[in-house]
Amino acid sequence: MAKLHPDLENKEFWYKDITLIPNRLPDFERDGVDLTTNFTKRIILKTPFVSAPMDTVTEAEMAILMALMGGIGVIHYNFLTIDEQIQEVEKVKRFGAGFVFNPVVLSPLNTIRDVYNINEKCGFFSCPITEDGTLSSKLMGIVTHRDVRYRNDMGTKLKEIMTPREKLIVAEKKDTVNKNDLEAANKILKEKNLDTLPIIDEKERVVALVTDSDMRKNEQFPLATKNENKQLRVFIAAESRIELAKERIKKAFEAEVDGIIIDASVVFKEQLEIAKWVKENFPNLEVVLGNVDSAQMVEKIIKEGPQYCDALRVGIGPGAACITQQELGTGRAQASAVLDCALAAKKLEPKYGFMPVIADGGIKILDEIGRDVQKPGDITKALALGAQTVMMGGLLAGLDESPGEKEFDYGESRMVKIYRGMGSLAAMEKRGAFRYGIEKAKIKVPEGKVIRVPYRGSGYDFLPNLIAGVKQSLQKQGFRNIKELQEGADIRPI
Ligand code: XMP
């Protein structure tokens, strides 16, 4: 483990209270730093960033950004219905996939309006046309963006405008999907200069699609977090209430989610029951439990069921929109919480196996005029203290990809976005109260507030800078990767 200065032992400290002393002579470039890490036991990220399951932070757009940048997004559950959350998962899964299985299809009698409706809901135009508009009937043609982009005649039937089967280039399932050979399909796309390539079986039924835009997206983001089928990975959060969680998790599994964060401000015992149910029914889903903030909590969870938990989320009340510590007098300085939990997990590793730690919340610092600014250094500190990844809310809420519109704050003369704690009264009007175990209570004591965070523009510009900052911080200290940082960091009080 890292070297902790004796003055820090038995003290409570935040990220701002410590510094990492460089005492090596680095002999490599910043790009020589590799940030590859475990998000969960089985899911590896090339960037140690996770976006928080909060309704002003992570829906599909943020989850896509995070996964393309090598991190991962966790979709919140503060929607009115479970299906609304699942639709966000589907949007991520459909984005830039390799083979798009279960593609949306239409019939020759559908109209141009139906194609526009699909674009609004799912974000794409290309649709194979089949005899009866389902995947069980024969392919009749295809409609792509090119066919509809200048059309105003919304009522025209697709049979009038589709490229018919006899003019279509298709690939056979046996040559592509059966061999899991995406390259073969992409080669046809390139050589024939196609937008979309349908893949059919021996009965002429569509089994998958491959698209040019997906192929280019896959080439453009080399760090992207993907499954074996080149689909972006995504997690959802679920309530710590078993009956509700069961329904949500079943639907999320069908939408091919990669894992579940069972969400609560303080880990409930019921979480273990849910985790066990998930592992018994869907062994391929990864399960994250939390939140915890002490070695005792970590030990209890790991000893009760190491096989039911794939990562622990650490942090009680350190978040930018949290008021738990001020209001309820409970919670913990985040740097101490991360260190204590990571040490406990490490101690139990020889007997119970590896347990990744997610440092959740508190990645922010005030600059000299009192504004929130991003500091990659806080992230490096969390990693040095033993976290494998860092979960962020407030830092990402100001990006274009978070839900909600930017607005002008006349008082501060700057653009801002609204960021709200899930324990704020506003968020608890929907499902936020589940996180605090008070959904049935008449009196709701808020544990979060609504704040404004600086508007930070596009995440596609912001995150590469943040990644470069973390790499530079490791390079300065002479560490090539997170493991070296965790073994060699020299942590001292400021
Ligand atoms: P940051 O600092 O990145 O923190 O904005 C994000 C994390 O804050 C937690 N969270 C809350 N904690 N009351 C709390 O005590 C709240 O209302 C609240 N909302 C979110 C959550 O763990 C998130 O990942």
What can be said about this structure in brief?
This protein is an alpha/beta fold and 494 residues long. Strands 5-6-14-15-16-17-18-21 form an eight-stranded parallel β-barrel, surrounded by six helices. A four-stranded mixed β-sheet has the order 7-13-12-11. Strands 1-25-2 form a three-stranded mixed β-sheet, with no helix packed on it.
What do you see in this structure?
The structure is a single chain. The chain is an alpha/beta fold and 494 residues long. Helix content is 33%, strand content 19%. The protein has 17 helices and 25 strands. The strands form seven sheets. Strands 5-6-14-15-16-17-18-21 form an eight-stranded parallel barrel, surrounded by six helices. Strands 7-13-12-11 form a four-stranded mixed β-sheet. Helix 1 runs parallel beside helix 2, helix 2 packs parallel to helix 8 and helix 8 packs parallel to helix 9. About 1% of the residues have low confidence. Bound molecules: xanthosine-5'-monophosphate. Xanthosine-5'-monophosphate binds next to strand 21 and helix 14.
Please tag this protein with its features.
single chain; 494 residues; alpha/beta; eight-stranded parallel β-barrel; four-stranded mixed sheet; 17 helices; 33% helix; globular; binds xanthosine-5'-monophosphate
Supply the helix-strand structural class.
alpha/beta
Low-confidence stretches: 365-370
Biggest β-sheet: strands ordered side by side in the sheet: 5-6-14-15-16-17-18-21
Biggest beta sheet attributes: 8 strands, parallel, barrel
